[in-house]
Design brief:
Elements lengths: L3 H20 L4 H15 L10 H10 L3 H6 L15 H13 L3 H27 L1 H12 L2 H7 L5 H21 L2 H18 L7 H11 L4 H27 L17 H15 L91 H4 L3 H14 L13 H22 L12 H20 L7 H18 L3 H24 L8 H24 L27 E2 H10 L7 E3 L2 H11 L3 E3 L12 H9 L5 E4 L8 H10 L1 E3 L26 E2 L19 E2 L18 E2 L19 E4 L6
Parallel strand pairs: 2-3, 2-4
Antiparallel strand pairs: 1-7, 4-9, 5-9, 6-8
Length: about 750
């Protein structure tokens, strides 16, 4: 009998578990939406190539040691970091450690976080507004084009949005359960979000304070106490990483890439903080050319110029720099040199990675940004008005009194307003940063559509908001579509008018509207057609761009390749360097990380990017450089990237004392691409790749690559190369000279033998 009791207990536990499992009510619409999200974010991701190889190089390096992992070192030797904090890269590195370094493995965390964000949207809305608004909000989040594009890359943005939503989730839980510990968790998660992309996370911080203050039914003294304690948790989790960097002796850690003073805190509040708003370049205070003042005549869509040339009116960006370097001589195209991760030719934005439209309250509606994020923005804004008055409550003394639903609306309005304001006035950001708006737009549009249909059916004084929303949104979307599909744009506008007319008229002439709700449903379906197609384009194209975007030009004949944002390796140069590296710590040194990244990804060896991402970081002095050369730790320097103020003295010393190395191809007697650089005529300059990390490198999969060229594969040996067509071409910089733009392969460069200096 004693032996049967444990068996009976185990059987009862199993029965109870199965009973609880069966009692769970699944929302099959939510399951379908999550499956759709998984398809959009993950399908064809094996075409990712090296994804954004600026970050992929860091992931390769971070797998080498815990020191590199903690500090987010760009190179295996721990010389310099990437210009972002490490949290997002930690997840990618863990994935790479488990599955190996592949394009899909470094993107996998972004995919999972993207799907997780869709679920969190559903959960946050469902608790106060019910299942139907929650389903709509989750669907809108899933089908936001820039959400799809961002979730398919190893950039940080999908990770950032997930942690922000997770922070909101626990803050909401603190309100619903009236338990303070959840508030602490929520604000701690906000601190972690800061360490994903720094001050960008704090744009929604006022919304959390406002929401908790309005939504909790406790005295103002307790509210103040709770928020004060939560702020302590926020401060701890915000500062724990940057302080650990700044308190570590600089000799024992990598240089903090992107900073002027080798400080993580200065990086957060300077380059990744105020300078984003003001458009100033690090170290000089100069403004980016074209920021916030681009012409209203832009290119056709917000997609990379994969097969389409960018607008002639696109602003001229700095020479691959977020700092004070001179503009490129490329006709205003921020190509491979200028967009992090190579970006696509024009960096994934209509007219460029830096083409963000004209600053002002309507910037987000303009064609430079709108086709990525603003398809449902009109519905979201009008939906906020509709839902605020729909949820007024029958026993309210004043029209502005707060109900539980209205308190939630203040949360999402508190998210939307500061982020909308930032993008309306900021002078420097990439279009794909607008994913920050996606949660607020999705929730307000989802709840708003639900309440507008309810008000229309009930013939309330707000019933006209539904037809106005459908008509206005149809007109806006037709304008976005027009540049790519003129006939379809007119059809979309005509259908919008045809559906809106009965929506305007029926409340006045019909006694019963419930049986006529098909018109409202048709309107909702209509306004989702165009954004759904835009969202499908990155998935169909298999894109994983350094500068993510969505749109029809991804599907052009020259734009079917994945892996945009990857540089190329000069095979002849690499073989020579590996043969002669000897015991030196670095394979070679170069000016910037865009030139170095593909070689790190290829070999897993240390390549010194002296000036960081864009060649202007003051990461090493001439004295320190000379010491490395004298000790034999550094034998070669390759002049192919961007020389800036950070390393000009070193480059001058190298040119004065080192010997140039002329390599010849192993298959023919002609001199390979590694020769003394000469100025080229812009009319005969080779095409720049749409996704080149090092300027001037040929596109992935191009028909006739220069002699000795190959795609990176070393550390990613099992990675599947893009099997589709190349990622289009932009106009290469004409007038490229040694040490400016031009990478190993497509443009000429110069290899210097440093070991000869102290022989």
């Amino acid at each position: 009998m004693e032996q049967k009791e444990p068996m009976r207990s185990t059987r009862n536990k199993k029965t109870n578990f199965l009973t609880r499992l069966k009692s769970i009510k699944y929302d099959y619409w939510l399951i379908a939406i999550l499956i759709l999200a998984a398809f959009l974010y993950a399908w064809n991701i094996w075409e990712a190539g090296e994804a954004n190889d600026f970050y992929t190089a860091a992931i390769v390096s971070m797998t080498k040691s815990f020191k590199n992992f903690w500090f987010a070192s760009f190179d295996p030797a721990g010389f310099i970091t990437v210009d972002k904090p490490p949290v997002a890269l930690w997840f990618m590195t863990i994935s790479a450690k488990i599955f190996g370094v592949h394009g899909w493995s470094v993107v996998l965390p972004s995919i999972l976080f993207g799907i997780g964000s869709v679920y969190l949207i559903y959960s946050l809305v469902h608790k106060r507004f019910g299942r139907v608004p929650a389903r709509l909000a989750a669907l809108f989040m899933t089908l936001t084009p820039i959400v799809v594009a961002d979730s398919r890359t190893n950039n940080m943005d999908a990770t950032l949005v997930f942690f922000l939503l997770l922070s909101v989730y626990f803050t909401q839980k603190a309100v619903l359960k009236n338990q303070q510990r959840y508030l602490w968790i929520g604000f701690a998660l906000m601190g972690i979000a800061f360490n994903v992309k720094m001050l960008q996370a704090f744009m929604i911080l006022p919304a959390l304070y406002l929401y908790y203050w309005l939504a909790t039914n406790i005295s103002w003294k307790k509210k103040l106490l709770h928020l004060s304690i939560a702020t302590v948790f926020l401060a701890i989790f915000t500062l724990i990483w940057p302080l650990s960097v700044d308190m570590t002796n600089s000799a024992n850690r990598p240089y903090e890439g992107g900073s002027e003073t080798n400080s993580a805190l200065e990086l957060a509040f300077g380059y990744n903080g105020t300078q984003r708003l003001l458009g100033q370049t690090t170290g000089t205070g100069g403004a980016f050319p074209g920021m916030g003042s681009s012409s209203s005549k832009k290119s056709k869509s917000m997609t990379p110029p994969t097969g389409k040339k960018s607008s002639k009116n696109a602003p001229t960006p700095p020479n691959g720099s977020k700092k004070g370097t001179a503009p490129t001589n490329d006709g205003g195209q921020p190509g491979g040199n200028n967009a992090k991760g190579g970006g696509a030719g024009t960096g994934g934005a209509g007219g460029g990675a830096f083409n963000i439209g004209t600053a002002g309250p309507l910037r987000l509606f303009q064609k430079e940004l709108g086709p990525q994020i603003s398809w449902l923005l009109i519905i979201a804004l009008l939906g906020l008005i509709s839902s605020y008055f729909y949820y007024r409550g029958s026993k309210m003394k004043r029209w502005y009194s707060l109900t539980p639903q209205r308190k939630e609306l203040w949360l999402w309005a508190g998210w939307l307003v500061p982020v909308f304001g930032f993008f309306s006035v900021a002078s420097f950001f990439h279009p794909y940063y607008t994913i920050m708006l996606a949660p607020a737009i999705s929730v307000l549009a989802g709840v708003g559509i639900f309440t507008m249909i309810k008000q229309w059916k009930e013939k309330s004084e707000w019933s006209m908001l539904l037809p106005v929303s459908i008509l206005g949104t149809s007109a806006l979307q037709a304008w976005y579509v027009f540049d790519d599909y003129k006939v379809l744009a007119w059809v979309l506008l005509a259908l919008g008018i045809l559906i809106s007319i009965p929506l305007f008229v029926l409340p006045w002439v019909s006694t019963r509207l419930k049986s006529k709700r098909s018109f409202a449903i048709a309107g909702v379906i209509l306004v989702m057609l165009a954004p759904t197609f835009w969202s499908l384009t990155p998935t169909i194209a298999g894109s994983s761009d350094g500068i993510p975007s969505a749109g029809p030009s991804l599907l052009s004949s020259a734009g079917m390749g994945g892996g945009v944002g990857s540089g190329s390796v000069d095979n002849t140069l690499l073989k020579y360097l590996e043969k002669h590296q000897g015991n030196s710590e670095y394979l070679f040194a170069t000016d910037d990380s865009s030139t170095a990244a593909p070689y790190i990804v290829e070999t897993g060896k240390a390549v010194m990017a002296m000036g960081g991402f864009n060649g202007t970081d003051k990461a090493i002095t001439l004295k320190q450089f000379k010491k490395l050369v004298k000790e034999g730790k550094l034998k070669y320097y390759y002049a192919a990237g961007k020389t800036g103020s950070g390393n000009s003295a070193i480059v001058s010393w190298i040119k004065k004392h080192a010997k140039k190395v002329t390599l010849k191809s192993s298959t023919e007697s002609a001199v390979s691409s590694v020769t003394t650089s000469t100025k080229t005529d812009s009319s005969s300059a080779p095409s720049a790749p749409s996704g080149a990390q090092a300027g001037g490198t040929p596109p992935s999969g191009s028909g006739t690559a220069p002699e000795g060229m190959k795609k990176p594969s070393g550390s990613m040996k099992n990675m599947k190369k893009p099997s589709k067509k190349p990622s289009g071409t932009g106009n290469a910089p004409g007038g490229t000279s040694e040490g400016m733009s031009g990478g190993p392969g497509g443009q000429t460069g110069t290899l210097y033998d440093l070991s000869s200096i102290y022989d």
